[in-house]
């Protein structure tokens, strides 16, 4: 008599039915240790679902995103970076004076409780509310770094923010108390950029020492060192599944790294200048890179192939982001413009360099020159949908919310005449 085969459990059946990645360099689904699930995570997921139900469906041909722009004045060229929280309630700036400033986007005062309120004096709820109102301020300044702050990133739950600096450290700050919790040391040179994982427990840094490093918030030493670039690693980004990290470098290349193994699994070459920003679509299939060569390149992460090159900006591109359905890409540049691009249109058309000059080529005509000497100042590929100029504000940060609203921010750069007028007013 044959013995009966054991009946598989529900968990085993579920794991057997999971889609398996076909790529040999794909990591195991269970390879990354995850933080324990908490009650607060349930609330955040509920809020996320609510936002998704209110999400505007964008279409390049009919429905373009609404853009809300925040301008910083009187920064005196000391603002280096900006970051906006996932729930769009806070915006943080990193300054050359070695501090971080956090502002509320809800027009409410920021209140840190630690060390400012004596619990013994709080008899009623109204006493606590009055005390909060007294200690509130329009912005909070975070002090701790000893050099300019170059990178910032909010945690997904908006309870923490990571900063990185020329002082070769990264620091974890609490948004509840506005205090420094941990200082992470390990890089040998200034740290240019930092990015929180979508999981919230891990973050990654990019440095002048040509490496990127993976950290866990509960460890003061790096878990992985990603080495391979031959120049500064200027920007870094987590893949949405948190199993890969993508870096952009001054060596004109981008690399995708496997977090578990620490090796490079994709190399993206094609830029003619350093890469200053990256963005990955929410579905994890596309990556956009841009930088000093003023162009934006769209890549297929599965194959590592270049899909198309998008041209239109007149200066270095500082920030990129995909819409939630990955049909639209927005970019912000030092030329003071926000540009909206059609991701799906003519993916093969723009790869031919000659077509850059057969698309919308703008001609500059100098009044003192004859029409024969007119020349092309800039070219725009066919996938550029719209250009939104500012008066005099380079765009440092651009980001889509969960509702598909686009937020952008930058620091106003006064003209020489305005600076001269301000100096004259000070002298009088």
| Major sheet attributes | 4 strands, antiparallel
What's the count of strands? 29
Uncertain residue ranges: 353-376
Terminal CA distance reads 107 Å
Radius of gyration: 24 Å
CATH topology: Methylamine Dehydrogenase, Chain H
**CATH hierarchy, class:** Mainly Beta
- Summed up, the domain count is 1
Q: How would you write the strand order of the largest sheet? A: 2-3-4-5
Question: Helical residue percent?
Answer: 10-25%
Q: Tally the helices: what do you get?
A: 4
| The CATH fourth-level homologous superfamily | YVTN repeat-like/Quinoprotein amine dehydrogenase
Q: Give the averaged pLDDT, no decimals.
A: 84
Class by helix and strand content?
mainly beta
* Second-tier CATH architecture: 7 Propeller
Task: Give the percentage of residues in beta strands.
Answer: 35-45%
**Shape label:** globular
């Amino acid at each position: 008599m044959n013995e009966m085969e054991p009946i598989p459990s529900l968990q085993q059946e579920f794991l057997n039915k999971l889609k398996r990645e076909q790529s040999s360099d794909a990591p195991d689904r269970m390879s990354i240790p995850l933080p324990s699930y908490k009650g607060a995570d349930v609330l955040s997921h509920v809020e996320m679902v609510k936002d998704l139900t209110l999400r505007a469906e964008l279409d390049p041909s009919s429905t373009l995103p609404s853009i809300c722009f925040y301008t910083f004045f009187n920064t005196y060229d000391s603002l280096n970076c900006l970051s906006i929280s996932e729930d769009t309630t806070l915006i943080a700036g990193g300054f050359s004076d070695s501090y971080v400033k956090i502002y509320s986007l809800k027009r409410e005062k920021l209140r840190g409780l630690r060390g400012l309120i004596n619990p013994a004096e709080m008899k009623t709820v109204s006493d606590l509310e009055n005390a909060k109102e007294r200690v509130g301020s329009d912005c909070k300044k975070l002090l701790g770094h000893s050099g300019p702050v170059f990178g910032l990133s909010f945690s997904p739950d908006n309870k923490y923010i990571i900063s990185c600096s020329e002082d070769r450290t990264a620091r974890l700050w609490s948004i509840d108390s506005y205090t420094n919790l941990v200082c992470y040391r390990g890089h040998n040179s200034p740290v240019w950029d930092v990015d929180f994982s979508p999981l919230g427990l891990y973050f990654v840094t990019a440095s002048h020492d040509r490496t990127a490093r993976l950290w866990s918030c509960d460890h003061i030493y790096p878990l992985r060192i990603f080495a391979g670039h031959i120049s500064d690693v200027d920007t870094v980004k987590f893949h949405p599944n948190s199993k890969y990290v993508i870096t952009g470098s001054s060596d004109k290349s981008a690399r995708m790294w496997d977090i578990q193994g620490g090796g490079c699994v994709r190399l993206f070459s094609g830029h003619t200048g350093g890469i200053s920003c990256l963005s990955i679509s929410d579905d994890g299939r596309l990556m956009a890179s841009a930088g000093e060569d003023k162009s934006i390149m769209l890549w297929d992460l599965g194959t590592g192939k270049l899909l198309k090159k998008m041209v239109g900006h007149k200066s270095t591109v500082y920030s990129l982001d995909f819409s939630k359905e990955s049909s639209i890409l927005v970019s912000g540049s030092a030329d003071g413009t926000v540009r909206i691009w059609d991701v799906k249109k003519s993916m093969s058309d723009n790869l031919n360099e000659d077509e850059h000059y057969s698309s919308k080529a703008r001609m500059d005509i100098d009044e003192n020159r004859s029409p024969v000497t007119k020349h092309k100042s800039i070219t725009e590929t066919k996938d550029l949908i719209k250009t939104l100029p500012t008066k005099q504000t380079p765009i440092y940060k651009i980001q889509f919310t969960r509702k598909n609203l686009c937020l952008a921010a930058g620091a106003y750069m006064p003209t020489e005449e305005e600076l001269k007028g301000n100096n004259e007013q000070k002298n009088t």
